[in-house]
Design a protein that fits this description.
By secondary structure, the chain is an alpha+beta fold. The protein contains 8 helices and 12 strands.
């Protein structure tokens, strides 16, 4: 079980947008160490969080104790808002994937901003809609793709979002383990490792210094269709 860390208050970063300035104005700046628990399932929902720097993992546990990752969020994303709007306790847990800097905004400030600022409401709706679309796409993959297809889809997405072109291919500049990929697609670490082995044998990818190099993005995309 992850221990809840003592929160550290950090130096204010440069605001990136009027909406972020609003959250920063009414929120409290906090930093968390890597793997720190921000909140867990069944906690009261009293704050939303805006990520200023770092990444957050949202996940749930099955009754059997298996972790299922809902999303990975990065700078500029919010989380924790849904339960406040629905008046419910937390349904998932939020953990810092990296060293993390967030602004925490209280429930009353959130509701007040929504009532007085239509621009804030629109931004919030877009954030929620974008996250919902990602989760629906992942659910579709879980239902209709093979195990190798699911792993290939994760690699294709990472290559497009975090890839850096080199003479060898597209280097995925994103730190993610086989276990984390398994948690994203509801499969085991061993299944992910086996898929990586097959992709290497087909010449689709290679791995070096814990980074994946995609040599044939089109071929990997074809595998992701199955």
């Amino acid at each position: 079980m992850l221990a809840r860390p003592e929160e550290v208050f950090a130096q204010e970063p440069v605001p990136a947008s009027p909406v972020e300035r609003l959250i920063q104005l009414h929120g409290q700046l906090r930093s968390y160490n890597r793997h720190a628990l921000i909140y867990s399932a069944d906690d009261p929902a009293s704050q939303i969080y805006l990520i200023s720097d770092g990444e957050v993992k949202l996940s749930r546990y099955t009754p059997e104790g298996r972790e299922l990752t809902l999303d990975h969020l990065s700078a500029g994303s919010i989380f924790g808002e849904m339960e406040i709007l629905l008046g419910k306790a937390r349904e998932s847990q939020a953990v810092a994937r990296t060293e993390l800097l967030v602004h925490a905004m209280g429930r009353e400030a959130l509701l007040s901003a929504m009532e007085s600022d239509t621009g804030f409401c629109l931004w919030l709706t877009r954030q929620m809609g974008s996250r919902q679309a990602r989760m629906e796409n992942r659910l579709e993959s879980l239902l209709f793709k093979s195990a190798n297809g699911k792993v290939a889809q994760v690699l294709v997405n990472l290559a497009r979002e975090h890839g850096q072109g080199t003479a060898e291919g597209t280097v995925i500049d994103y730190s993610i383990t086989h276990q984390e990929i398994g948690n994203l697609i509801a499969t085991t670490r061993e299944t992910v490792s086996y898929a990586f082995m097959e992709f290497r044998q087909l010449g689709l990818i290679s791995t070096r210094q814990r980074k994946t190099i995609v040599h044939d993005l089109g071929g990997l995309d074809d595998v992701a269709l199955n």
